[in-house]
Write a structure and sequence with these properties.
The chain has 537 residues and is of the alpha/beta class. It is built from 13 helices and 26 strands. Helix 2 links the parallel strand 3 and strand 4. One of its GO terms (molecular function) is quinone binding.
């Protein structure tokens, strides 16, 4: 069957919203009865009604009963009613609601109220995991945003968010912190203050995804069951892939804005450096915020230029890639700043080793003929960016593609093999830029499509690959790069997007943080519609 089924006993199973077309498969799977636990008027009655299903079940040779229950009000009367139905209806029976969680809870209630020796009690549920309608793995930007968006559409939906961290960070500000343009303490808040009301927060981490069984395993061995799964674990910063880097960070001039606690050290180095060599690195894609490594360079160079130190400081940008920026339209404008600051560009130059005490860095360099060599460079300041990879729990799961990312359709964001799994954020296999701006639009697409899937409706919401990279080319000016799949420009404003503007600096430093905390994480979806239906890249 194409619908996710959880078997609770030999005679009783639950699933999410079914449609008429599912009944043939349900009968073929051996079920004899269907119970509808979803009220007809829920969510405006967009789903197939109980009366329509009763007629369709009769045609398919299935018995049918209607036992409606609201998600927030399940009591012993529901359990008693289910016991009575199962006593008279032929088995095995399949019960459903929006996502199956209410049906599961009614079955549990029936077991709770069953007296010792009651024949029903012998059919106790064999589903040991905690069960939830929707489980969201990850409480970062993507997890909180999509939870809030779901609750705005379906206030009674039961959601669990699995997130071990106690604090939540506004990561786009870290580049500004590293330039002395944003307060470090303004970029972090307690996770508890952001978790949407009504969400069940599981403070743990997922060690294994078991999508064939609609379950997750946590680090402590606990199992969690779900009807719908949203994967937004983010990616992992693989510091260990650069020899000596982990040990060197935070001292001897080695820093990175990709760690919140090191961004203030970046500003310390920039503000104190009077002369010498400053190296900036960028690993192979994909990475989160592809412009961040060079933004660190621009803001540092701008400070040195303003202080009259630029001629005493040699700047080199080492990139594992072959071009300055992935969207060609923005390269000429960026090159003008590279030339203004007198920075040297070293392409196909990948940082592989750091010796902080000796202030040496090694790069693997590919020449025009494809030959690989290793070059040693000395530095007074090194801003290093680590390679970035999928978390092991996703990489080693059936959800992963060949590269380890959660494999979803690039338009609907639903998994290509598991119909009750969606993903958004940095863990996605989609070809968009991994930015908060992308998440802001993806959260809306996932919320709309997940609920449509529960209702048996087509997935009409489409993600166009939108991402935004506010390129802070100098203090007070930003090039607002907005683009979608295939590098298509998707500017929000009717201005030349390749021009650095003071208004965009105000947007970056004042407006967007406010939008993040007050709108995006609260499910208030400002400017989130995709420009047009997306095409697979």
């Amino acid at each position: 069957m194409n619908i996710p089924v959880i078997k609770h006993s030999d005679s009783f199973s639950t699933t999410s919203q079914i449609c008429r077309e599912d009944l043939i498969d349900i009968a073929a799977a051996g079920y004899k009865s269907v119970i509808c636990n979803r009220p007809d008027n829920e969510d405006g009655g967009r789903h197939v009604s109980s009366s329509e299903l009763a007629v369709a079940c009769a045609s398919a040779g299935l018995a049918f009963s209607y036992l409606p229950a609201h998600a927030t009000h399940i009591d012993k009367e529901h359990g008693e009613a289910l016991r009575a139905l199962l006593a008279e209806m032929p088995g095995p029976t399949l019960a459903f609601c929006r996502t199956g969680n209410r049906s599961t809870n009614i079955f549990r209630m029936a077991n709770i109220i069953a007296a010792p020796g009651d024949s029903f009690r012998a059919e106790q549920s064999n589903d040991k995991p905690q069960q939830f309608e929707v489980v969201i793995v990850g409480g970062g930007s993507a997890g909180i945003a999509v939870a809030s968006s779901l609750l705005r559409r379906a206030p009674n939906i039961q959601i669990a968010v699995i997130e071990p961290c106690s604090h939540h960070y506004y990561q786009p500000a870290w580049t500004l912190v590293g330039a002395g343009a944003f307060r470090h303490d303004k970029a972090v808040r307690p996770m508890a203050s952001l978790m949407p009301e009504g969400v069940h927060w599981i403070r743990n981490a997922v060690s294994a995804f078991l999508p064939d069984h609609n379950r997750l395993q946590l680090d402590d061995g606990q199992l969690i069951g779900y009807q719908q799964l949203i994967v937004c674990t983010g990616l992992r910063l693989a510091w260990e892939k650069i020899e000596g880097l982990k040990e060197a960070l935070g001292k001897n001039g080695v820093t990175s804005n990709y760690r919140h606690d090191l961004a203030p050290y970046t500003w310390q180095l920039v503000s104190q450096l009077k002369r010498g060599t400053a190296l900036f690195s960028q690993p192979a894609m994909p990475i989160k915020c592809a412009g961040a490594p060079q933004k660190a360079m621009y803001l540092s160079c701008d400070h040195w230029l303003r202080k009259g130190r630029s001629k005493q400081i040699e700047v080199e940008f080492n990139s594992a890639g072959t071009t300055l920026f992935g969207v060609a339209a923005f390269v000429p404008s960026l090159m003008r700043y590279v030339e203004k600051y007198g920075a040297r560009l070293a392409f196909e130059s990948n940082l592989v080793k750091v010796d902080g005490e000796r202030k040496l860095a090694w790069f693997e360099v590919t020449d025009a003929n494809g030959n690989l060599s290793r070059e040693r460079k000395s530095f007074d300041m090194l801003h290093a960016v680590p390679p970035q990879v999928p978390p092991d729990a996703v990489r080693n799961s059936p959800l992963a593609n060949a590269e380890g990312w959660c494999e979803v359709d690039p338009a609907s964001l639903r998994h290509v093999r598991y119909r009750n799994v969606f993903a958004l954020g940095d863990i996605c296999s989609t070809a968009n830029a991994k930015t908060v701006a992308a998440i802001r639009k993806q959260a809306v697409v996932v919320a709309d499509n997940l609920l449509a899937a529960c209702d048996g409706l087509p997935l009409s919401a489409r993600y166009d690959g939108y991402g935004a990279c506010p390129l802070t080319v100098e203090r007070g000016k930003v090039i607002l790069a907005e683009f979608g799949y295939g590098g298509k420009l998707l500017p929000t404003f009717r201005l030349d997007p390749t021009v650095a503007r003071r208004s965009h600096w105000f947007l970056k430093t004042i407006v967007l943080p406010w939008v993040y905390w007050k709108l995006m994480l609260k499910g208030r979806e400002w400017l989130t519609k995709s420009s047009e239906p997306a095409q697979k890249p």
